[in-house]
Design a protein that fits this description.
The chain is built from 17 helices and three strands. The chain is mainly alpha-helical. It folds into two domains: about 220 residues, Orthogonal Bundle (Citrate Synthase, domain 1); about 100 residues, Cytochrome P450-Terp, domain 2 (Cytochrome p450-Terp, domain 2, Orthogonal Bundle), CATH 1.10.230.10. The chain has a three-stranded antiparallel β-sheet with strand order 1-2-3. Strand 1 and strand 2 form a beta hairpin. The radius of gyration is 22 Å and the shape is globular.
Length: about 375
Amino acid sequence: MTAAAATKPQDTRGLAGQTVGETSICAVTQTQLIYRGYEIADLAEHASFEEVAFLLLAGHKPTAEELKAFRQEQASLRPVPASVRDTVARIAREHPDAHPMSVLRTGVSLLSHQDPDCEDNSPAAELRKAKRLLAQIPTLIGACQRGREGKPVLDPDPTLGHAANLLWLITGRKPDELEARVMDVSLVLYAEHDFNASTFSCRVICSTETDMHSAVCGGIGALKGPLHGGANEMAMEMLKEIDHDCAGGTITVDAWMQRAFVEKRKLMGFGHRVYKNGDHRAPILRGWGLKLADRMGPQARKWFDLGDQVQAIMLRDKNIHPNVDFPCGMTYFVMGIPVPQYTPIFVASRITGWCAHIMEQHQNNRIIRPLADYSGPALRHWKG
C-alpha cells in the first residue's frame, strides 16, 4: 500500500461509518441483529410479531397476561374513521399511478387529525399513539389496495393476529397457518434496524419536538425510496424481468447478469451498508418462503430457484451477498401480494421500531443539527 493510499480519507458521505447517537432499542453487528437484548434468529423462531412489537414499544418481554391484553387492545384499535378509510380508498382508485407508500403517508397524516393525543408528547400519550398506528396501518394498506382494485374496503378481522389480518385486508382471503406464519416472521425481521435512513429521519424530525405522526410521515417518505424499503419491490421486478428475458432459452441467467454488470446496472436486493458478510435475516426469510413455495408447487418454487441462480452469480462474480429484501420479494410474490404493496407492508412492521425511537428521542432530547463542510466558492462581493 502506498503512503497516499494509506492516508486516503474515509468516504463519510451519507454518514458512512459515523456514530451519531446511542440507543437501547437495537444493536446491529456483522454477526448479530439484537432487539432489546434478544437476537433476531431467536425471535424469528420463538416469538410472534405481537410479542416483538410489545418488546420494542414497552421495552420488555410481555408476560402471558400482558400479551393477551395487548392483542385484545390491538384488535379493538384496528378500525379507522370512515372519513380516513374512504379518502385513502378514493385516492388509490382515482389515481392508479400514485405509489401506495404516498397514499399510506397521506393516510397517516389524516389519522393525526383524529388522534386525541396527537400534540401530546408525554410518554403515556406517545405509547397510546404508537399502539393506534400499529393497529391502524394495516387497515390503511388494505383500503389502498382495495381502492386500486375498485373493490369494497374490507373490515379488519378481530379474530386474526396482526400478520393474518394484514393479509386478509390486502388479498381478501383468510390465510392458512403457514401463510400467516411466513408473514409473521417477515414482520419480525423487518421490525427494527437501529439508525437506518427512515428511523434516523424519524429521530431528526421528532428532535424538533414535533409530534409522532409528523415523524412517521417522514419515515414513510424515507422508506419509500428504492435504496431503502423500496428495494424489495425492485428485487422482485428484476426477477420478473430475468424470467421474461430468459424464457425459451434465448439467453441464460448468467448471460443476463453479465450484461447487467457491463451496463453497470444496479441490482436491487444485494449489498448492505452495514453487513459486509451477508444479512443474517435473508436466509431466515428465504427458508420460510421456500417452505411455502414448495407446498404451492413448481410455479412458486421457480422463483426461488431463479433467485438462487442470481444470488450465486452475484456472490461468485461480485462477492456481494443478498439482503433481506431479496427473499422478501419472492416470498411476498408467491403469497399473491401485489408488488406495489411490499414496502407498505414493511411499514406495518417498522412502525414499531420507528415509534420506539421517537419515544426514546423525546425522552432524552436534543435537536439533531449536524455541521457541514462547505465546498462552494470563496467569499465574493455582490457588487464586485
